[in-house]
Amino acid sequence: MSRSVFKKIWLFYYEGFKSMTIGKTLWLIIAIKLFIMFFVLKLFFFKSELSEYSTKEEKSKHVIKELTK
Questions:
Q1: 23, 10 contact by CB (below 8 A)
Q2: Whether the model pTM is above 0.70
Q3: Residue 23 contacts residue 32 (beta carbons within 8 Å)
Q4: What letter would DSSP give residue 41?
Q5: How far apart are alpha carbons 19 and 60 in whole angstroms?
Q6: Sequence-distant (≥ 6) Cβ neighbours of residue 50 within 8 angstroms
Q7: From CA 53, how far away is CA 37, in angstroms rounded?
């Protein structure tokens, strides 16, 4: 039963994307924006604070301290 539901959902989206014309371009633009936001900006602007600590215990203590501020 659940297999047929997943198959129907998959076919719904597959057929929808297959018949798109301008939608594919819009999805490509969205994917590029997400890539820039999550990967490129993280690499250049957000440093990893956990790299300062050498052991897992120090890292976990830092995370707990930051979460309970």
A1: no
A2: no
A3: no
A4: H
A5: 49
A6: 59, 62, 63
A7: 26
pLDDT tens-digit readout, 5-63:
999 998 998 888 888 888 888 889 999 999 988 888 888 877 777 888 899 999 899 98
Asked if 62 and 53 touch (Cβ cutoff 8 Å), the reply is yes
Q: What pLDDT does residue 1 have?
A: 58
Return left, alpha or beta for 48; rule: phi > 0 is left, psi -120 to 50 is alpha, else beta: beta
CB 59 within 8 A of CB 53: yes
User: Token digits for 38?
Assistant: 């999550």
Block residue for tokens 């597959």: 14
Q: Is 28 helix (H, G, I), strand (E, B) or coil?
A: helix
